[in-house]
Amino acid sequence: MERTEQGEIRVRCLILRRVAYKENSAMVTALSPSGLFGFAARGVNKLNSKNLAPTNELSLSSLVFLSSSQGKLTLKEGKLEESLLPENDDLEAFGISSFLLESTLRFLSEDSDSADCEAIFDSLLANLRSLKTGDSAYLAGTRFLSVLLKVAGIAPEVNRCVRCGARNGIAGISKLDGGFVCLNCLTPSDERKPVAFLKDFRTAILAPEALGEEHIRDLFLFTADFLVVASGVHLKSLDMLKRF
């Protein structure tokens, strides 16, 4: 955030959530490269409000705030830089967009480290743009998950067995224990996977930009389930995506 000579605060941010508040106003949650924050947006639900578009969800906006003595932000004016709504009524793209926003809101807070917020901001913006241009929805979701798992501190172990440390003979994945499991350590509660899937899962965690579209939906859903099991956080948008 940048403070002006007039005491105003300027920030470039992604709008994650807008909730109606009192008459024609809203409470908005946004993410900038330096952090997650909330603010009051008075009158933005009026159709003629100049701040309606800049405070819509899935918007990249430049905003100017007034700050109270308690540090509470009130929107003064805003400018929409870019709408990140998917085009062509693509249900999967809308579903992944919802997943990206919901998971960001669940795993970041106003107290989150600025480096984590910057990493999520950059990935969120890049993958929302990817969705808008018609790229694979599940590729975008998987690329984002790779970053989110690291930020959340629960990235799976994909170089060795989580139980014995063996690098060879990897045969499955344990969501509960957090990563690869070798054949010797495999139990009925683990998920045995083909070698091709194990390689793709490792790529999804370490170098998601190298993934192709083959079986990408199954890979996304498995990786998202890993996030849910490892964190204990329920995501409604994931339930919706599973029904597609």
* The CATH architecture of the largest domain: Up-down Bundle
The string of secondary-structure elements, in order, is: EEEEEEHHHEEEHHH
First-last Cα distance: 39 Å
Residue-averaged pLDDT: 95
CATH superfamily of the largest domain: Recombination protein O, C-terminal domain
According to DSSP, the number of beta strands is 9
Which runs of at least 5 residues are low in confidence (pLDDT < 50)? none
User: Total domains, how many?
Assistant: 2
**Roughly how many Å is the radius of gyration?**
20 Å
Main beta-sheet annotation: 6 strands, antiparallel
Shape, per Cα inertia axes: elongated
Number of helical stretches of at least 4 residues: 6
> CATH class of the largest domain, anyone?
Mainly Alpha
In brief:
The protein is of the alpha+beta class and 244 residues long.
Please, could you describe this protein's structure?
It contains 6 helices and 9 strands, in the order E-E-E-E-E-E-H-H-H-E-E-E-H-H-H. The chain is an alpha+beta fold. The protein has 2 domains: 82 residues, Nucleic acid-binding proteins (OB fold (Dihydrolipoamide Acetyltransferase, E2P), Beta Barrel), CATH 2.40.50; 152 residues, de novo design (two linked rop proteins). The strands form 2 sheets. Strands 1, 2, 3, 4, 5 and 6 form a 6-stranded antiparallel β-sheet that branches. A hairpin with a 2-residue loop joins strand 3 and strand 4. The protein starts with a strand and ends with a helix.
